[in-house]
Every structure is written in structure tokens, then in C-alpha cells.
Write a structure and sequence with these properties.
- 2 copies of one chain form a homodimer.
- By secondary structure, the first copy, chain A, is α+β, with helices and mostly antiparallel strands.
- Chain A has 2 domains: 34 residues; 137 residues, Nucleoside Triphosphate Pyrophosphohydrolase (Alpha-Beta Complex), CATH 3.90.79.
- Chain A contains 3 helices and 11 strands.
- In chain A, the strands form 3 sheets. A 5-stranded mixed beta sheet of chain A has the order 7-4-9-8-11.
- In chain A, strand 5 and strand 6 form a beta hairpin.
């Protein structure tokens, strides 16, 4: 494994309501120096949930994405509240976004958005044994629940309104988990 | 399909060397108004390449990620130069990052990073029929080429140094393409 670059100096260069940009000077082990910029997230992290509605269907949501200015098919997800456990955050987001809670949660992996330019990550959790339960979320309009067959995820990937890399990665991880090729960690209540 | 929200006003709220943050006011079809922020990328887009070294191995790189301040296993990728075709960008990045060019390129999909907060995307391209050829890139240190067995991608996903959502998504798309379940589009020279 290579020796990590030395961080010489870092400072905040831009900030808005939601985003913070940090600049930092690095010296690599071969002596080369570079200035990098990265996004630093606020908050307490975020979760993305792959929830099985039954043995054959996963829960997708259709929601408006302000970044791409269009509706998109993706997975339930959201920010973790201050002091909230990972499991509680997942169960709250499911109840807010698809109208179900779950009895079983399995931690799969922390995914990074862009390792080169962002320090943030999202925790991917698998959920099943769902029960109907609705919580009021902060969505500007109700989200549409779209059940999708696990056996037909390749057709989802081919759709123009399914674009989010993290969601496709999370679904692939869940498939590997269900096939017994990927180790998860049960989240106890 | 739902009617898209109306965009009432937008303006630049923060800017650094690499990042631009835009704020915009939206009115949803149910009358609810919200202020959103999103990252707007500069440049001409970016490519990520799933390249087969032979029938069994895909080309990974180990590189330093400034965002996560650590080395990470991911796919060759980079920005498209002004006026450069998608195919030429992929072939240049492969030569700079793994020391191979390719004779065959197949377009798979444009992946979004975060549909909620970022307008940018990355074009995922599959490549094979490689030939040795090295080009000088702008990397601060040489990247390490790591061949990985296609049959053992689930072990890659389980590694702590493989975190990038888009890379895992791109590998899953390539697997579906190779299995004949996902349609690609050959990029002609």
C-alpha cells in the first residue's frame, strides 16, 4: 500500500446554505505538490434503503431531483437526524417515503459519491419484513411508490429515468447479499 | 408522469476553482414552493471505463482520492477535453491511466451522482480488445493497475478500499451487458 500524501494546509474557499468547499495542499510521497478541492458535507450522514416489499419486489420511489431538474426512479434515502441510530433513520425514511416500516435491517456498505472530490458517503442498508406505517416527511409533494421485480433490475438499469449511480450500486449489493456472496451485518433494535 | 415543478428564479450563490453552487426557487404542481441548491459542473462532461484486460479480468486502478483522503480501488475515469469525442476521451484516459488503448468501445449509460443536488453526470463506457500504449496524464503520481476477476466482483464490493458508488454501478451494468441483458451502443471511430 502506498504512503498517503502529506496534507500541508487546508482552508474553506466557498460556502452556501447546503455546500462547503475546502481547498488543501498536498505533497505526494514522490515529492509532487498539488492543490485539491473537495466538498465537505454538513450533517450526520445519510442512508439509502433497499427494502423488499415481498420475496420478489423491491421498493423504488419516483421523486423530483432538483439536481437534474426531472423526476427519477431511485431508492428511499435521506439524512440521519442528530442523535438518531442508523436503524432508526432507515425505519423513519421508509415510513416517510413509502408508507412502510420494517422489522429487519442489514447493513451492507458505505458508498462514496466521488472519492476524488467529496468526503461524504451514504450508508446502504437492506430491509425486509415490512409493515404498513406512515410518517409525515419533509417532501414538497407525496412520493410515488413503484414496486420493481428483483428479477427485472436489468430493465430498470436500461430506463432513462433511472440514473443514480449509488442506487444501482445499492441494488447490485443487495442482489449479491441475497445470493449469499456478500456479507451484511444485522442492525439490532 | 407528474408535471415538473416550475422554476421561478435561479442564481449563483457560491463558487470556487472547481465548484459552482446554484440556488433556485421552485413551485411544485400542488402549489408548494421550495428553494433548492445544486452543484453545477463546469467542463465538457466525464467518462468512466470498464475495460476488459482479457475474457476474465477487468482493469481497476488504485489512486489517491482527495475527497476521502485515502487510496481507493476504482475504474479509469476522467474529464472529456473540449472538442474531444466520447470514444477518444475513453481511449485517452485508458492510455494515461492503465497503459492500454482499446479497439472496441460500447456506450452503456449516463449515471448521475446525486439527482437531488448535482446536475452533472458521467458517461459509462465498456471497452475491450486492448493494446499496449502509454500516454502521459496529469496524475501527480503513477496509478497502479489492478486486474480483477469478473467472477469475483462480489469480493471487490466487500473491500473497504472499494467505495465508489458509480464504479460499482458501472461494473454491474457491464456484467448485465456481458450477460446479454443490457443494451449497449457501439461507439464508431
Amino acid at each position: 500500500m502506498q504512503k498517503k500524501p502529506q496534507i500541508l494546509e487546508r482552508h474553506l474557499v466557498a460556502q452556501s446554505r447546503l455546500f462547503r468547499v475546502e481547498s488543501f495542499d498536498l505533497r505526494f510521497s514522490n515529492g509532487v505538490e498539488r492543490t485539491y478541492e473537495r466538498l465537505v458535507p454538513g450533517g450526520n450522514g445519510a442512508v439509502m434503503v433497499v427494502a423488499l416489499l415481498d420475496d420478489e419486489h423491491v421498493a423504488l420511489i419516483r421523486e423530483y431531483g432538483g439536481g437534474i431538474e426531472d423526476y427519477t426512479l431511485t431508492l428511499p434515502k435521506g439524512a440521519i437526524d442528530l442523535g438518531e441510530s442508523l436503524r432508526d433513520a432507515c425505519n423513519r425514511e421508509l415510513q416517510e417515503e413509502i408508507g412502510f416500516g420494517a422489522h429487519e435491517f442489514v447493513y451492507l456498505k458505505k458508498l462514496s459519491l466521488s472519492p476524488s472530490y467529496m468526503s461524504g458517503g451514504i450508508d446502504v442498508v437492506f430491509a425486509r419484513n415490512l409493515y404498513p406505517s406512515q410518517l409525515e416527511g419533509d417532501e414538497p409533494e407525496p412520493l410515488e411508490l413503484v414496486p420493481w421485480k428483483l428479477a427485472e433490475l436489468h430493465e430498470l438499469y436500461g430506463r432513462a429515468d433511472c440514473t443514480e449511480g449509488r442506487a444501482i450500486a445499492a441494488l447490485a449489493l443487495a442482489q449479491e447479499y441475497l445470493a449469499g456472496r456478500f456479507q451484511g451485518e444485522v442492525l439490532e433494535p
